[in-house]
Every structure is written in structure tokens, then in C-alpha cells.
Amino acid sequence: MSNNADNTPNDKEQPNSRRQFLGWGMAMAGLAIAPGITLFDPAHGRAPEEAASSKVRWGMLIDSSKCATGCDDCVSACGKENGFSGSRETDSQWIRKVEIKHLPAGHSHSLPMMCQHCEHPPCVDVCPTGASFKRDDGIVLVDRHICIGCRYCMMACPYKARSFVHEELHDQNPDVPRGKGCVESCTLCVHRVDRGGQPACADACTAAGHDAILFGDLNDPSSEISKRIATLATTQVRADLGLNVGVRYQGI
Amino acid sequence: MVSLAKLRVMLTWRWGAVLATLLAVSTLAVASNDEHESSGGRVAKPVYEEGKGDKCVRDDAYMRRHHMEELKHHRNETMRKGIRTTEFSLQNCVDCHANKKTNSVLGKDGFCQSCHTYAAVTLDCFECHASKPKAATPFHPLAGKGQKAGGEAGVATTMHQQMQATPVEPNTTGGASK
Question: Which residues numbered 116-145 in B keep a CB inside 8 Å of some CB on A?
Fold first, then answer.
């Protein structure tokens, strides 16, 4: 430990024990954090060292009247962002397009279906290891480090939102670690959300001019999504289950 | 059986001197063998290049002993709480330590793999995590169109490239667009 603790200029003392060194480490971490708050302020107002808060609840509002039949911009954007194409039979599917038709009237709708990020997620209830969990800001995730691939959550999910990774993967997106033997599903592009962005599907939908997917904070009454949910008739798919989902639909 | 007394007689001072010399020579041989690992049939010491920048986030001794604990702590913070500081993130390690030739921390001369092979410790981070630095940080999906997918032509790479080569045209002529 001859050259330790030299990454801050004010740290001139040579610590003589590991305990002392660790203490300095903690102090340095504190110093390093302080400027971060002012230097990097993402759009959501959350610094990198700040934990996700339950004051926020991320959700999406999907306007099925704007969602075009046959368009799969959101699906391909999701695959590109998260590293699967859907061309292989065993590929994961985080989002899919669903066509629904009211048979007597002949009226049809197209909409994307993915993890609904429930307030009371059945996948979390059944997970035997605690790998399925809901983050404080309402995003339901799988901790692959402790997922044993039992697939109980896939059975429990009423939305058929989860996939199992059957084959070895290569060249993953550094932001989206994925691997064989784990269950996975839509993460609401948590790596983008944490940096102030929005999910890739919402971005792609907006970029293509459809504007069918609106992402935002359901807890913030002044957010666009909350305003629309307050004024328009929106639907929760399988509302009878009482899961209070984070993804809402409009026009179905 | 040779009794202890007889043995003591056999070992006169001459025998003692011969034995001592032999011992000294063999000790020297072992010592010199340690210095030239490759010739002695022992596992070669890991060879890796220095990372980018002046120094690591902590000193070498600390990192060697504690990087796994720091990574594990950080992974839980990031996974469960969404804390995305870079100091002990695996992505940050890969960004700095990727081999300049192979652009990876894996492989024979890879920073992570060379040492883990030497220490005989399984390295399974990279079954899921990317072993290569992020290409050009394509934040927006449209900005990532020119992104290269790395050197190894794995199945995923090929599919990724195919997917990029044939962007799906938005089909706005569908019936449900009202």
C-alpha cells in the first residue's frame, strides 16, 4: 500500500492500516459525489448517486387509435436497444404487437403489449429467490445475478410478458446485460430512464411520427401522462386482477 | 534396519559437507526457477497492458484484493436502487482496461481473463455483461445506426448487423390508423 489513496489532491496522509485507508476511501467517495450533483443534472433531476424514489412512478400511456396496424417500430427499436431481433425462434420478446378485433362490429385495434409494470406484480409474488422485484419507482425488473431460471414468473404473469433466454448470447449492449438461463422482460429501458431518457419504444414511436406511446411519471399530477389519464378514458388491461398496472391504454 | 548410532557414525563430517553442498545447490536451483517462471513448467504470470489514464479508482493492492467485493456492492446498488455512479461499475472497468488490440477484457491477454486464469478463478461476469467498451454511446436509437458491433462475428452480432441493415419502414397505410 505504498501509493494508495492518491486520487484526491487533498489526501496527503499515508494511511497505516486498511481500516484507516477504507475510511479515507469513504471520505473520498463523499468528496467525489459532491460536485456530481451540480455538474450532472439529468432531465429527471436525479443525480447518478441518487437512488430511485417512490415519489416517482414511471408509466406509459398507449393510444391505440394512433398505433398503426402492421407498424412495428417500437418492437424493432426494443430489439435493437436490448440486443435481440426476434428472427430466432428462441429469441426473447419484451414487446409484441397485438391485433384485437371486435367481431360483431368488425372494429379492429393494434397495440403493443409488454410488461405492464404492475404495482402488485404477480411475478414478484411467486419468485422463489427474490430475483423478480419492483424498484421504488415502479419499474419491475429481474435481478439476473440471483435468477435461477425456474420460470415461475412466466407462469404467473397474466400478460405473457416474460421470456427465458435459451441460448448463449454475445455482444450484448453494455447497458443491458443479458445471458442464458435467466428470465427477462421489458425493463422500461431503465438504463435510459436513470439517465433522464425515455424507453426506446417511445422514442421510436415519436421519431416515426405516430406519438402513440407517452412515457412519464404517474405520480406527478403536472406530467403530461397524468393529465391525460385524468381527462381521458383510459384502460388497464385485465383491470379485474387489481394489479394497478403502470402501462395504460387509450381507445380500446 | 540401521540404528541411530550407526547412522551417526556413517555421517562423518565429510558426508555432512557433501549433503550441505547438495542442499545449497538445490535451494539455489529452486530460487532461480522461481524467477524464470516460464521455464519451470509453472503457470505463466499474467501479462496485461495498463489501463487508460494515470491510475485506477483505488491503488493496485486494494483493487487486486477487493475488486470483487466492490463490484458486487455496486451491482446491487445499481440493480436494486438505480444508483449509477461510475467509480466501481463494471462498465467503467471495461472502458479503461479493454486490450487495445482486441478491444476486450477477455482473451489470453485480456485484463480480466489473463489474471483470472492465473489465479484459477471462474470469471462469469461476461456471460451476460459486455466484455467490450460501449461503441459510440448511441443514446438515441436513431443515432446508433452507424455503430459497429465489434470484431467477433457471433450469431448475435450478425443478427444485429442484419437488423441494422434492414430498418423496418413504418407502415402507416394500415386500417386502424384513425
Answer: 127-130, 132-134, 139-142, 144
The pTM for the full model equals 0.70
pLDDT band of residue B4 (cuts 50, 70, 90) is: low
Window A:94-133, CB contacts with B under 8 Å: 108-110, 133
Each domain of chain A, given as residue ranges in start order, spans: 1-39, 58-250
Point out which residues pair with A214 in neighbouring strands.
A61
- Whether B35 shows a pLDDT value over 70: the answer reads no
Length of chain A counted residue by residue: 252
Which residue of A lies nearest to B155 if distances are taken between CA atoms? A170
Predicted confidence (pLDDT) per residue in B118-135, tens digit: 999 999 999 999 999 987
At the topology level, CATH places domain A58-250 in: Alpha-Beta Plaits (3.30.70)
Q: What is the pLDDT of residue A65?
A: 93
Chain B residues closer than 8 Å to A71 by CB: 170-172, 174
